[in-house]
Automatic annotation (TrEMBL):
Gene Ontology terms: biological process: lysine biosynthetic process via diaminopimelate; polyamine biosynthetic process
PANTHER family: DIAMINOPIMELATE DECARBOXYLASE, GROUP IV DECARBOXYLASE
Enzyme Commission designation: 4.1.1.20
UniProt key word Lyase: yes
Lineage per the UniProt record: Bacteria, Bacillati, Actinomycetota, Actinomycetes, Kitasatosporales
Identification of the protein by name: Putative diaminopimelate decarboxylase
Record SUPFAM superfamilies: Alanine racemase C-terminal domain-like, PLP-binding barrel
Region (Disordered): 1-23
């Protein structure tokens, strides 16, 4: 069975709804650093993506972008499926209200213990990245609750004892798609199974009891720059489907065409519109899978950043302003432990967030005349490493201790993509507003708990 995306809900809050909290109000109420997430923006982004995709398309929300219960819960309520790749993300998805039958468990290096946990929780759809994934699923299939899996298999599926475990075979294309930056496909990669390998060894991908390859997973990249590059990867994916169906001797029930829908990250800018995407995709589908509108396969997509990137703002306070050897520094109460941690480790180009000064905080009239305060300022955090800095800005007005700064477009790959454990600072407060609901504020904590020895790990 495939969950269809319902028409987007009206996003106008009822007249009695509290007005959405602003970053300044949240900073006054809860202190900084804080992340503010606006659920109305999540709903608007979802409506934009529904409008940009073919009629009836299924949308997966990738929880790694932001697993916050209310952010993810908004997308569950709007009819998305969840795409998770750890037991922690599975817990977050279930806590957010996703039904286990609407969860797709994906990712490389799934351990047998993780797969068992997912099956016991009622997950019956997996993206499989190797023959071993299929073998482990076959071995553990009976952990799936028969009632749950029979329901998820749907009336059209040849349900065996307890129903089908649906596997989407993740394919690595045989060549990269032009225009992709961080290529995750078409090159040598840890992800998926090479297209050529499936064609060469189709018997390895046969049905295994309840475990069936019911579809393909064709995720190729993230944050793609233009509609043409998006369409180029979808075309490359669809072009492989016919050959794979012939090689495996089956029709697919689902084609997960991936995503890569871009949006600004950690700086000013608007979520892009994709005015030609729906028509372009429908044309490609008509060409490659002419039965998609009537008999299937169901067509699905995945997004993290497009759905939630624009909903978030990181708010931080200037703690100190100083000068060293001709360079001015604004030291703030946030840093690479809250935003841009991967970049902070120089695993990626360093993140240079685009900061805005808010009107709250320090007295705007005091000491802001041009002079020693003018000119570029390096914004740095409190961590005891020189890597904890967000770069130099010439766009900021002169700063004083107490000023509030905001980094817009930080709803995706913010807190959980950072070095939250490093140096032991408390996590920022996460404030959620919008959707006509009362504002909530919570703080994530990292705690240490005792772990029992298990026979499986005891090699003595
Ligand atoms: C990370 C990831 C996504 C989400 O990527 P975004 O750029 O946030 O949309 C989707 N699918 C898979 C398989 C991923 O690993």
């Amino acid at each position: 069975m495939t969950a269809r995306v319902p028409a987007p809900a009206a996003s106008t809050p009822p007249a009695t709804a509290p007005a959405a909290t602003t970053p300044e109000e949240a900073a006054t109420a809860y202190g900084t650093p804080l992340y503010l997430y606006d659920l109305d923006v999540v709903a608007a982004a979802h409506a934009d993506l529904v409008a940009a995709l073919p009629e009836g398309a299924v949308i997966h929300y990738s929880l790694k972008a932001n697993p916050h219960t209310e952010v993810a819960g908004t997308l569950a309520a709007l009819g998305c499926r969840a795409e998770v790749s750890s037991t922690g993300e599975l817990d977050a998805a279930l806590a957010a209200g996703f039904h286990p039958a609407d969860v797709t468990y994906s990712g490389p290096a799934k351990t047998a213990a993780e797969i068992a946990t997912a099956l016991r929780a009622g997950v019956t759809r997996f993206s499989v990245e190797s023959v071993r994934d299929l073998e482990v699923l076959e071995e553990l299939a009976d952990l799936a609750d028969p009632a749950e899996s029979a329901e998820s298999a749907g009336p059209g599926d040849p349900a065996g004892p307890g129903g089908v475990i649906e596997c989407l075979l993740r394919i690595n294309a045989d060549r990269p798609v032009p225009g992709m930056g961080l290529a995750m496909a078409g090159v040598s990669t840890k992800f998926g199974v090479d297209f050529a390998r499936v064609l060469a060894t189709p018997e390895a991908f046969r049905d295994r009891g309840r475990v069936r390859i019911t579809g393909l997973h064709l995720y190729m990249g993230t944050n793609l720059p233009t509609e043409d590059v998006l369409l180029g990867q979808f075309e490359a994916g669809l072009a492989m489907c016919g050959e794979l169906a012939a090689a495996l001797g089956r029709d697919f029930a689902e084609l997960d065409l991936g995503g890569g829908f871009g949006t600004p990250y950690a700086g000013p800018g608007e979520r892009p519109a994709y005015p030609g995407l729906r028509a372009g995709l429908e044309k490609l589908l008509d060409l490659h899978v002419p039965t998609w509108r009537t008999g299937g396969p169901a067509v699905s997509f995945e997004s993290g950043r497009y759905l939630v990137g624009s909903c978030g703002t990181l708010v931080t306070t200037v703690v100190d302003v100083k000068e060293s050897k001709g360079q001015r520094y604004a030291l703030v109460d946030s840093g690479i432990h809250h935003l841009g941690g991967l970049a902070g480790l120089r695993r990626l180009p360093p993140l240079r967030p685009g900061l805005l000064r808010l009107s709250g905080g320090g007295d705007p009239a005091v000491g802001r005349e041009a002079g020693p305060d003018a000119g570029p300022v390096t914004v740095a955090g409190p961590l005891c490493t020189p890597l904890d800095q967000w770069g130099s800005s010439s766009d900021l007005p002169p700063l004083r201790a107490g000023d509030l700064l905001a980094v817009p477009n930080t709803g995706a790959y913010g807190l959980t993509a950072s070095l939250v454990g490093f140096l032991g600072y408390p996590a920022p407060v996460e404030v959620v507003t919008g959707s006509g609901r009362p504002t909530t504020a919570t703080r994530a904590v990292l705690t240490r708990v005792p772990v029992e020895r298990t026979p499986h790990h005891d090699h003595a």
